[in-house]
């Protein structure tokens, strides 16, 4: 007769495949023993043909649990009260969490011992256990999702003439020492659920949305699609010096590229949120999660010091020639604005890093206009022209004002807002449908 079940002892009347859950739960906790052939009340029932049952147990555990749990399991027969029982002793594993292969690293496949029962672990608990047992960075840990495909990655590597064999995946740290996909593999896989959110606003604040998008899939795919989206709204302004025409983009393309790469390469992917990009008429803000790596200060960044939070991801991007060398992105952004009136702003707070790129064309236009002695008179004439259009058409839009005055979005929105504040116009509708009518 045995005592009752507790945190390190489990009774099984007979062998069933469910024993795998108890073995996993003990290995993920403080270890324990499973006795087969014992009723729940502790009385001895015994096992018929114990050799055959032991073979079933060993084969089942070996084939259905990952990582390999057998070094931490002993299975033997004992004779108690004249009957044979089977003792399965499980030690705490060193490669936790252990899980059912058919279920994967999910609550339905990962168990832990709580009291006298084996319970599914939460996603958060699984992540914490991975970190605690490995001591590795997020990108080097086992991915919770192992059913991954790499269509985007393989195409990009093929373009760069980089081999994508199984051995190369290990070299690139996409596969860990345990033969399983790492979180780095998850980030560049087609199944990646980490996203980038981009919002396009009218004016210089968040009062009016013009568009918003969320980008999914491999971070390589997101990199390309987000850059293309920003490039579409990155307007070109033409100026003339005599017969020579000079085109100038709102934002230097190199600065946009480096700010976007910085968002992706240096963010802390253990956070569940999205990177945010806010596009206003006068600036773009790139907000990435994670802040600075512990031990670094903003002053260190401007001195060219670089310590990547995701060195394996940075190494992959380097091989793909997406980045030239470590720690040069901030300097490239600054150089792109070397001869401009305003310069990029770099800010950090707990868990956040933000890069703000000023719109070169909007600012230069405003400086020229406001430095003129005839500023007030020109402003009133422009407002009157807007009111004339509103009277003639019955309404006026921001786009109408841009075309009427050959002005940028910020200036058009600012004039319309001033007319509203003066009680001459009234705003109707929101977003793309917004327009203004006479009061």
TrEMBL record:
Domain Schlafen AlbA-2: 5-122
InterPro entries, per the entry: RecG_C_sf (IPR038475), Schlafen_AlbA_2_dom (IPR007421), Schlafen_AlbA_2_dom_sf (IPR038461), WH-like_DNA-bd_sf (IPR036388)
Domain of life: Bacteria
A Pfam family of this chain: HATPase_c_4
Annotated protein name in UniProt: AAA family ATPase
């Amino acid at each position: 007769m045995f005592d009752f079940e507790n945190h390190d002892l489990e009774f099984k009347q007979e062998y069933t495949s469910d024993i795998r859950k108890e073995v996993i739960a003990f290995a993920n906790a403080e270890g324990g023993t499973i006795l087969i052939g014992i009723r729940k009340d502790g009385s001895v029932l015994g096992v018929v043909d114990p050799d055959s049952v032991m073979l079933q147990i060993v084969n089942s555990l070996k084939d259905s649990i990952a990582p390999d749990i057998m070094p931490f399991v002993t299975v033997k027969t004992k004779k108690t009260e004249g009957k044979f029982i089977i003792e399965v002793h499980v030690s705490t594993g060193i490669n936790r969490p252990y899980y059912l292969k058919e279920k994967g690293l999910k609550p339905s496949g990962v168990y832990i011992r709580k009291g006298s029962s084996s319970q599914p672990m939460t996603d958060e608990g699984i992540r914490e256990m991975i970190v605690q047992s490995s001591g590795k960075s997020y990108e080097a840990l086992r991915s919770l999702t192992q059913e991954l495909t790499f269509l985007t990655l393989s195409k990009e590597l093929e373009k760069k003439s980089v081999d994508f064999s199984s051995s190369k995946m290990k070299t690139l740290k996409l596969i860990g020492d345990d033969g399983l996909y790492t979180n780095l593999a998850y980030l560049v896989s087609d199944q990646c659920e980490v996203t980038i959110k981009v919002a396009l606003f009218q004016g210089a604040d968040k009062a009016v949305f013009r568009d918003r998008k969320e980008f999914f899939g491999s971070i390589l795919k997101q990199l390309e699609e987000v850059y293309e989206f920003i490039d579409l709204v990155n307007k070109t302004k033409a100026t003339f010096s005599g017969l020579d025409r000079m085109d100038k983009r709102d934002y230097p393309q190199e600065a946009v590229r480096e700010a976007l790469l910085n968002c992706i390469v240096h963010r802390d992917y253990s956070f569940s949120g999205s990177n945010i990009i806010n596009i206003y008429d006068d600036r773009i803000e790139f907000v990435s999660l994670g802040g600075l790596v512990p031990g670094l200060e903003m002053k260190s960044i401007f001195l060219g010091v670089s310590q990547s939070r995701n060195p394996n991801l940075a190494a992959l991007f380097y091989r793909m020639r997406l980045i030239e060398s470590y720690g040069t992105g901030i300097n490239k952004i600054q150089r792109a604005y070397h001869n401009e009136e305003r310069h990029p702003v770099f800010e950090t707070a707990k868990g956040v890093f933000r890069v703000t790129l000023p719109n070169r064309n909007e600012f230069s236009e405003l400086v020229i206009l406001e430095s003129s002695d005839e500023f007030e008179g020109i402003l009133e004439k422009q407002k009157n022209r807007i009111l004339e259009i509103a009277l003639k058409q019955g309404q006026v839009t921001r786009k109408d004002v841009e075309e009427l005055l050959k002005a940028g979005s910020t200036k058009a929105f600012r004039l319309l807002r001033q007319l509203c504040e003066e009680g001459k116009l009234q705003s109707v509708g929101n977003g793309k449908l917004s327009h203004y009518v006479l009061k």
